[in-house]
Every structure is written in structure tokens, then in C-alpha cells.
Design goal:
Length: 408
């Protein structure tokens, strides 16, 4: 098998894994009311259940960072993704509150390991290609999220129970995941790293240069969780939209996220990662400003559309920047950075809710706007303008994922 064919197959296999993860996560979060009804979880207890998932996902990401040192990122991906689907099935098929708690705990740990290992393999493949491809992986994840949300709507509409819904999802996705497993690979690129690139591992005193990217990741997910948790309520209660209209903002946000990521790699190749991230940051902040000042629901939805186009580029490029910052230990850097995904998710919704109650819901939308603008202060962390690595590209050569540490 030629090197180019091996890389293309690895890219396709990883793309399917991003798609499957988008479907699985959407099937969980969009059926939370049904899960609450099945297990009779009180409104007071539900937030604790929901908060436990990202907390455990952070722990799973840390564990993945340790595991890849001995077994490699591909091995972590191969066991964690089937475990995500099986635990999702457990969430739908359990009978007691204890069953739900155990299944959600496994889901959280597995999701953290899966998110970390997928992005490790993604930055490794990008490194091998010598050009931006990370946004494409996250575009496929967004497509999976839309597909999963649509499947959840159909299941609810046709009154299909949770066990049947999740069993159908596992039956469709699991064969593809198992088939993709042996194809996961990556490589080391030909181009050398820019002069002055820190080579020390984050776990050995070199963690400090990663902190700006951790802050950017947190702020981006505060913005994302604000849209996920508050867009429907904001359009209906603040902007006076109907209940039916209130279902549109998140769909528009997801659609523009998909569109932005689908073309984002072309922008990175043409203008450089830093320029694309700056443009995305300004668009996202502007979207929040439009939402805050919107006179009616349609103007508010235009703001959420801008948000999707802006926020969508920041997270994938943050992972890519960690790879450039720590070329010899990118697995550890990606695992640590991934923790702040869940930190932002945990902070965002309660922060905006508390500010809305204490101040105003319109004013609360300006806070994530200001936090997203922090990204502009650290735009240089995303690399020089022009070529992905700031140097002419050479032909990639295939090696092991994780810079020679993955055992295929």
C-alpha cells in the first residue's frame, strides 16, 4: 500500500469516527427530557447528572493522555468509541436510577478519551499532510450532530422508545467503527518545525506555553454552551418568538457551523490559521452583539447564524496550534487542552443564566462576546500567516500516530 493511499484511508476512517461521535452525542443531549422521564429524575437532581458527564469526560481526557504513552492514540480510539455507543445503549435500556448513573459515568469517561484521541489523530494526520485538514474533521462532527438531532426528533415524533432508538444507532454505527479501527494511522511531515519551538513536554514543566490556548478553548466553549442551552429560551422569552420559532436558532447555528468548517481549511491554507481565527473571533463577538441588540426573533436568529460561522473555526485550530507548539509531545498537549472543552461547557450555561437573572438576559449575551474576544490577544499562538507550518511543504512520509509512539 502506498503512503498516499494509507493516509487517505486513515483520513476517511477518522472522518467516520468524528461523524459517529457527533451522532452519539446529539442522541444523548437531545433526549435528556426522555431520559429524565424514564428514570424519574427530579428537576433538582437533573443538573447534577448533567454536570457529572463533562466532569468525568475531563477525567477521561487526562487518562487518555497517559494511556497513549504506552498503547497509542489509535488504540485508545478503538476501545473508547464502541464503549461510548454501548454506554449510550445502557442509558436507554436501564431500569433504575443507579443504572442511569452508572451508564452516564461510563459515557462521560469514554467520551473524554474519545474526544482526546480523535483530535490527537487529527492533528497527527494534518501534520502528515502538511496542510490544514482539521476543520474538515470537525465539519463532519457537526454533520453527525445534525443527523443525530434529526434522528432524535424522528424517534420522538414516532414515539420510538429510548432502548429502540439507541439500539438502532449502535447497530448502524458500530460496524463502521469496527471496520475503521485497523485503518487509523498518521505520519510525520517533511517540513521542519519553526525555530524556537518549545520541545519540552507539557507534563514536564512545559505546560505554561499552552495556557493561552486553554483559555481560548474555555472561552469558545462558553460561547458554544450559551447557544446550546439558551438560544431557544432567549428567542421565545426575550425576543417574543413562538415556541415553534424557538427551535430554529440552534439548527441554524449548527448548519452554519457545518458550512464554516467545510470551507475553513481552504481559508487556513490561503490566509493562515491566525488570520482565520481572528476573523472567526470578530464574527462570533459580532453575532453575540446582534443577539443582544436584536429587536425581534428573526434578527436574533441572524445573530446566532453569525455565531456559528465565527465560533466554528476556533476549536479545531486551537488543537492544531497545540500540535505546532509541542511537535514532539502533541498527544499530551491535546489531552490537556481537551479538558478545557468541558470546563467551558460547565461554566457557560450557569454563568449566562445567573447573569440573566441578576442583570438582564440581553446583557448576559455580551459576556460571552467579551470572553470570545480574548482570543484576539493570543492570535499569534495559532501560527504565522501563509503556509500551515510557515515553511514550504514537502511530501509527507508515513509513520506512527503520535510521532512514532502508536503501535499499529
Amino acid at each position: 500500500m502506498t503512503a498516499d493511499l494509507r493516509l487517505r484511508r486513515a483520513r476517511g476512517a477518522l472522518g467516520f469516527c468524528f461523524l459517529a461521535q457527533g451522532v452519539a452525542f446529539a442522541l444523548l443531549v437531545t433526549r435528556i427530557p426522555a431520559i429524565q422521564d424514564r428514570y424519574r429524575i427530579s428537576d433538582a437532581l437533573l443538573p447534577a447528572f448533567l454536570a457529572a458527564v463533562p466532569v468525568l469526560a475531563g477525567a477521561g481526557s487526562v487518562a487518555a493522555g497517559r494511556l497513549v504513552r504506552s498503547v497509542g492514540a489509535a488504540a485508545v480510539l478503538r476501545w473508547s468509541q464502541p464503549l461510548v455507543l454501548l454506554s449510550l445503549l445502557g442509558v436507554g435500556a436501564g431500569r433504575t436510577l443507579g443504572h442511569a448513573a452508572a451508564a452516564l459515568a461510563v459515557f462521560g469517561l469514554a467520551v473524554g478519551a474519545l474526544d482526546a484521541s480523535m483530535n490527537m489523530l487529527g492533528v497527527s494526520l494534518q501534520h502528515a499532510y502538511g496542510r490544514s485538514i482539521m476543520l474538515g474533521f470537525h465539519a463532519v462532527y457537526s454533520l453527525g450532530g445534525i443527523a443525530g438531532a434529526s434522528a432524535a426528533w424522528a424517534a420522538a415524533h414516532w414515539q420510538l422508545g429510548l432502548p429502540a432508538t439507541y439500539l438502532a444507532a449502535a447497530a448502524v454505527l458500530l460496524p463502521g467503527i469496527l471496520a475503521a479501527g485497523p485503518l487509523h494511522t498518521g505520519g510525520r511531515p517533511g517540513p521542519p518545525e519553526p525555530a524556537g519551538t518549545p520541545q519540552d513536554a507539557p507534563g514536564r514543566g512545559g505546560f505554561r506555553p499552552l495556557l493561552p490556548l486553554c483559555l481560548v478553548m474555555t472561552c469558545a466553549y462558553i460561547g458554544d454552551s450559551t447557544v446550546s442551552n439558551w438560544s431557544a429560551k432567549y428567542v421565545q422569552d426575550v425576543l417574543g418568538g413562538s415556541e415553534q420559532l424557538a427551535t430554529l436558532p440552534y439548527n441554524l447555528y449548527m448548519a452554519t457551523t457545518l458550512a464554516g468548517r467545510a470551507v475553513g481549511d481552504l481559508g487556513v491554507r490561503r490566509f493562515g490559521a491566525a488570520a482565520v481565527v481572528r476573523a472567526g473571533t470578530v464574527l462570533a463577538a459580532g453575532g453575540f452583539a446582534v443577539v443582544a441588540a436584536a429587536p425581534g426573533p428573526w434578527a436574533g436568529m441572524a445573530g446566532f447564524t453569525l455565531l456559528g460561522l465565527g465560533l466554528c473555526v476556533i476549536v479545531p485550530q486551537t488543537f492544531a496550534a497545540a500540535d505546532r507548539l509541542y511537535p514532539q509531545s502533541s498527544d499530551a498537549a491535546v489531552a490537556r487542552l481537551n479538558i478545557f472543552n468541558y470546563a467551558g461547557f460547565l461554566i457557560g450555561s450557569p454563568l449566562v443564566g445567573a447573569l440573566g437573572d441578576a442583570w438582564s438576559h440581553r446583557g448576559a449575551m455580551l459576556v460571552p462576546a467579551a470572553l470570545v474576544l480574548v482570543t484576539l490577544l493570543y492570535a499569534r499562538s495559532f501560527g504565522p500567516s501563509g503556509a500551515l507550518y510557515g515553511v514550504p511543504h514537502e511530501q509527507p512520509r508515513v509513520g506512527d500516530v503520535g510521532r512514532g509512539r502508536d503501535r499499529l
